[in-house]
Amino acid sequence: MSEETGAADTLTNGEDHLPQVALIAQYVKDLSFENPSAPGIYQAPEQPKIDVQFNIGSQQAGEDVYEVALKIEIKATQGDLTAYAVELVYAGLFGIRNVPEEHLPPFLLAEAPRLLFPFARRVAADAIRDGNFPSLVLEPIDFGALYMQQAEQQTALAESQPAGEA
Question: Which Pfam families match?
Fold first, then answer.
């Protein structure tokens, strides 16, 4: 009788060698809503100009655990007045095991933010709506394309520097 090999062999002594990624928790790390021009801003007839900025950061939070933070800054202005300003840091803890080191940056800076963004978008929209402004629906973002664009820019910059300079 031949011995069967399979999933049991990969679990020697309780260890699994297959890549594993799991979202452990997601949370609002920081949230600020400012309405500095109230109450006069509510009488302004024009629509505010909206400026949205994003930033993504990641750091190791423990063994096989990484925190990914999506920072969203939204500022609405009407002329010289600030209608509102929202600063949100929405984060997630990801358990990552048996993933090659070269695959971590694409996951942490592209895939993880893609998973967090819908929830961060809702938190920002709720804060704006609760400030008595029309809810702002942020368009989906292709974090993968942004990651690739930034990686290409870094590669081009590195190639443009003469050898020996840092």
Answer: SecB
